[in-house]
Amino acid sequence: MSSSSRSAVAPKTLGKRKRQTNESKAKVNGIKKSAGPKIQTTREPSAEEEESDAYEVFRRHFESQFKPIEEDLRPKQPKVEEKQADNDDEEDEEDEDSDWSGISDDEGKRKVEVVEHTGKPSNSNEYDDLAAKEEMKAFMSSKPPTAARKPIPKPQKSKENSEDENDEAANLKNDLALQRLLRESHLLDSNSSLDPTGKNRHKALDLRIQALGSNSSIMTQEKMPLSHRKGIMAKASEREEKRRREARENGIILEKPKLTKRKDAESRRERGVGGPGVGKFRGGMLKLSKRDIADIEGPKRMAKGKKGRR
Amino acid sequence: MADPRPRLVKFETQRSFALRLVLATLTGKTIRVSNIRPSSTNPGLANYEISFIRLLEAVTNGSAMEISYTGTTIAYKPGLITGCAPGRGASGGVIRHELPEGCPRGLSYFLIPLCLLAPFSKAPINVLFTGPGVITSATPMGDISVDSVRTAILPLYEQFGIFNNIELRILRRSCPGPGGKGGAGEVQLMFGHQVRVPKTIHMMNPGRVKRIRGVAYCVGVSASNNARMIDVARGILNPLVSDTYVFSDVSSAPLIPSATKADPNAKRKLGIGFGLSLVAESSTGAFYSADVASPPEGGVPPEDIGRQCAYQLLETISLGGCVSPAAAQTMLVLMAMGSEDVGRLRVGKKVFATEEIIDLGRDLSQLGASGWGVRDADAEGEDLIVSIVGSGFGNVGRKIA
């Protein structure tokens, strides 16, 4: 203990010292009470001790008359220590004037062991373990540390409850299956199982691929005779036309028809490199058709008025 | 100004100049600041103040300023805070702001006000600070280091509901150059979270300090300086908070071209030194920071810097309240700009009773914000509770959009 702390509790020590003399010579109590005002300030602790003393006296008296109190064990031990402490104190007193630890006799027994986990501060290389590295990455990144700190506990969480994760995975799987069923249910026959088979399987697969962003269906036939294709297209347009006509007759408003661009307007035939940009070159002569000439001349005046309208 | 409009708000002297301009921009009031260093040998606006005005002009649209011939008076009519939309001076969405040589202020002088504007901007703010005047460390003029801005100021925005896409990249470090002027660092601020109004906060409980983090930086000097600073600082702080880490950042000195006739390609080193930034975080999310850097003239051992910084941090914590002095202005301004609701903040008496905070309160009330309510936090009277009603202006750009 430093001297400053001793001086801080100076009045107390004064009183306490009195008590020690009390214990060695039991009489002094009386004197103390009659002592001057200076000591009166310290009356309280001494009064307490008086009580304990009185208790001690009563106990001894009781023990002499009857037998030692059973539950002695508890009070006895401190007493022994007290004596020791008293001796110590006396020695102390011989050494230096005012070092007293009266109440601390009791406290000394219950003293809480203080363990400091400070260690020797050393260079920061000490924190080479993974957590510290992550921490460092999070702290030294360009983001404010609280925002960066959040994602750290995530991996720990997933490790902890793998069961939860399994559940999650199963849920996801079921979810996907349900979604697929809902989307492809129109392909299923009433009597077949839930998984489409054969041709329907291909159709389902095609649907999925298109949902993922495919431009064309795998079911469209790329190559066929021109007459076939023409027939198909004619049929399709006829069907569409019929649908629109019927809707119009019934007063149903349909979506606007898609504008089909004229083919030759949007893309010209790919011409060879180095050849003329217009006309046909044959036999050392560039031949221009009427249409080519019309293209070069541009629209006529007369048509201009109409051209603005669509 | 030929016709003084009734909405013109008049201020005097250069005190908290940057903050006044920011407040004017946020409230949309025209202000006039006069008597700027009238009797100084170098009267008028300083170069860093001019530079801040340029920065303000870059991130706003339609703002107008008029500076008198001597530079002792400026009239500022704020525009819309547009941020860094590409096509308006921002190449690729990044505004490049060059700080002039001889700038004695740390970069935090520009960063903290800019961060106050950023949540109310229309587009994200993305500014790259370059040039021979960027000092990233703490400065003798009292500016905190860029690390402290990132680790102690920016996390506070999270309490106001502003936390996404905020980044402060320190691309190159620099300490103050000779005479405390200039540096050649490079820092990029990205503030990508814009809100209508910041959330109302109630911070009544400072909590207990649970962790201390820090950055020790050295520029162009031996890395052992860092180790020595960290050693001493941890020696002081570790017995108090065991969760104390101080990270070390070593960088080489920035080079700036200094062409001479003899050698037109000559370069010289600028802004070498070292420093320490410490941040304590409490269990309730309050931040306390401390910053010390080696003086430009040198001559201080790193142990002293480490010790001074650790003690400064302890002092900041001992001031109490939920904010440190460095962050108090930011918090109070954001509260004042919040929705029309009462926010409460516990502030230490010694933090509150400073010139800057009292000035801030007066400036705000002059600009039409409501007054602050101040009462004792408890019977002990160590702290105050400051209640602030938000202005409810919020982000004009967001209102339309």
CATH superfamily of the domain at 207-318 in chain B: RNA 3'-terminal phosphate cyclase, insert domain
Within the largest sheet of chain A, what's the order of strands?
1-2
Largest interface: A-B, 20 and 28 residues
What profile does the largest beta sheet of chain B have?
Answer: 4 strands, mixed
Mean pLDDT of chain B: 91
Radius of gyration of chain B: 21 Å
How many individual β-strands of chain A? Answer: 2
Biased composition (Acidic residues) (chain A): 87-99
Region (Disordered) (chain A): 1-173, 216-310
Biased composition (Basic and acidic residues) (chain A): 56-86, 106-119, 236-272, 289-300
Biased composition (Basic residues) (chain A): 301-310
Key descriptive features of the protein:
heterodimer, A: 310 residues, 61% helix, 2% strand, elongated, B: 401 residues, Dihydrodipicolinate Reductase, domain 2, four-stranded mixed sheet, 10 helices, 27% strand
Q: Care to describe what's here?
A:
The complex is a heterodimer of chains A (310) and B (401). Chain A has 16 helices and 2 strands. Chain A has 310 residues and is mainly alpha-helical. Chain A has a domain at 3-109. Chain A has a two-stranded antiparallel ribbon. Residues 1-43, 72-83, 89-94 and 121-125 of chain A have low confidence and may be disordered. Chain B is α/β, with parallel strands linked by helices. Among the domains of chain B are: 207-318, Dihydrodipicolinate Reductase, domain 2 (2-Layer Sandwich); 325-389. Chain B contains 10 helices and 22 strands. Chain B has helices at 17-27, 47-59, 108-117, 146-153, 224-237, 302-318, 325-336, 349-352, 355-366, 396-400; strands at 9-12, 31-34, 60-61, 64-67, 74-77, 80-81, 95-98, 125-130, 133-134, 166-172, 183-184, 186-191, 202-203, 209-219, 244-251, 255-257, 267-269, 273-282, 287-293, 342-348, 372-376, 383-389. In chain B, α1 (17-27) packs parallel to α2, α1 packs parallel to α3 and α7 (325-336) packs parallel to α9. The model of chain B has no long low-confidence stretch (mean pLDDT 91). The interface between A and B is medium-sized, with 20 and 28 residues.
